[in-house]
Amino acid sequence: MLAVEKLFKQYTSEDGTPGGGVFGASFEIAEGELFTLLGPSGCGKTTTLRSIAGLEKPEGGRITLAGRAIYDAAQGLNIPMYERNIGMVFQSYAIWPHMNVFENAAYPLKVTRGHGLNAGQIREKVRGVLAMVGLEEFINRPSTQLSGGQQQRLALARALTREPALLLLDEPLSNLDAQLREQMRAELKRLQRETGVTAIYVTHDQSEALAISDRIAVMENGLIKQIGPPKDIYERPTSEFVANFIGSTNLLRGALKSDATAGSVGMIETRLGHLTCSFTADVKASPTVGVVIRPENVVIEPAQSDAAAAIPETNRCDGTVVNETYLGEIVEYETRVGKETILIRTRPGKAISPGDAVVVHFPPSQTLALIEDGHPADAA
Ligand SMILES: Nc1ncnc2c1ncn2[C@@H]1O[C@H](COP(=O)(O)OP(=O)(O)OP(=O)(O)O)[C@@H](O)[C@H]1O
Ligand SMILES: [Mg+2]
């Protein structure tokens, strides 16, 4: 449905030097997919969306929507935004306060002269969209008399009335409180499924991205670091940046003697001795390769226990528990292993307390050797 190829846009900073932007982002989105751009503030998410919408003129690359080029630097082609059939929901100017609910939702049809619809048909259509977002009963209410969540739903309704080929959502939930946000994100996902609209969702909230996306593109400094389904991004990050940005993780450093390829298993020499690791990306030989393992993937057992005796020799270390945090469903153990402090999460119920000697195990399939930060192998 959408193809973005080598999108490039660089702003100029206030002092005249080259500033931030997007530096060669490429991705494709299938029809009906919910695709998320995820990354820290300033990484280029909004710039990417604005370029797709036609609100920003990029300097390089090509954008194709439903088989038609809407931007092509090489050909000097830039289709104006109102001819792109794209719906947008932005965080800041969500709705128009001087219009009531009906007028807000009907606006996109009015500006396009109703798509050839008469007043009765417009009313019918708007009523249908408002019903879909649960605002039908408020149809004649001034839009300023809606709650924050209702205003966001109205903004969404307005973006959907024109049946856009593509829906762009730029942090649409960020000004809602935490509870409403969780509720709205489930509703958003349901609506997107029901309408089958292809959507790009922008957020810097990793749990939001994991919860609603079909696929996620993680961005840093104007570059896409990794694209994949939420499970892949979480379980098989290919770079330290992605591993650190999504969820908490333990990071060790070690030496890799010779280049390794994605999908292979190999040895890294760390301060905890030789660890057998899985490579999720091609990694060059280096004395400072990153090794990451999620806290919930580290095995911990009381020293001298039967369970500890059953732990294999590979990636097995002795440690001492320094701190215990009880979090209800899980317990977190801060554990001293050699010169490293390892965070471990398990279900409650193990006979382990601070000060206890433990055996710790890093399962090789979940101990990942990654591309270090500052080695953007995927930037080329
Ligand atoms: N109009 C502008 N003029 C100059 N620099 C800009 C402009 N708009 C954005 N930038 C810069 O471009 C980079 C990318 O900005 P962008 O708005 O795309 O980030 P973002 O990922 O959407 O961040 P956030 O999560 O904070 O919304 C930033 O470094 C930003 O400062
Ligand atoms: Mg932004």
Ordered list of secondary-structure elements with their pairings:
Elements: E1 2-12, E2 18-29, E3 34-38, H1 45-53, E4 60-65, E5 68-72, E6 77-78, E7 86-90, H2 101-111, H3 119-132, H4 148-160, E8 166-170, H5 178-195, E9 198-203, H6 206-212, E10 215-220, E11 223-228, H7 230-235, H8 240-245, E12 250-256, E13 265-270, E14 273-279, E15 286-293, E16 299-302, H9 306-309, E17 316-326, E18 331-337, E19 340-346, E20 357-361, E21 368-370
Helix pairs in contact: 2-3, 2-4, 3-4
Descriptive overview:
The relative contact order is 0.12. The chain has 3 domains: 233 residues, Rossmann fold, CATH 3.40.50.300; 73 residues, no CATH class; 63 residues, Beta Barrel (OB fold (Dihydrolipoamide Acetyltransferase, E2P)). Helix 2 packs across helix 3, helix 2 packs parallel to helix 4 and helix 3 packs across helix 4. A 6-stranded mixed β-sheet has the order 7-8-9-3-10-11, sandwiched between helices. The protein has a 5-stranded antiparallel β-sheet with strand order 2-1-4-5-6, with helices on one face. It has 9 helices and 21 strands. The C terminus is likely disordered. The protein is of the alpha+beta class and 380 residues long. The radius of gyration is 25 Å and the shape is globular. Strand 12 and strand 13 form a beta hairpin. The site of adenosine-5'-triphosphate has 13 residues, from strand 2 and helix 1.
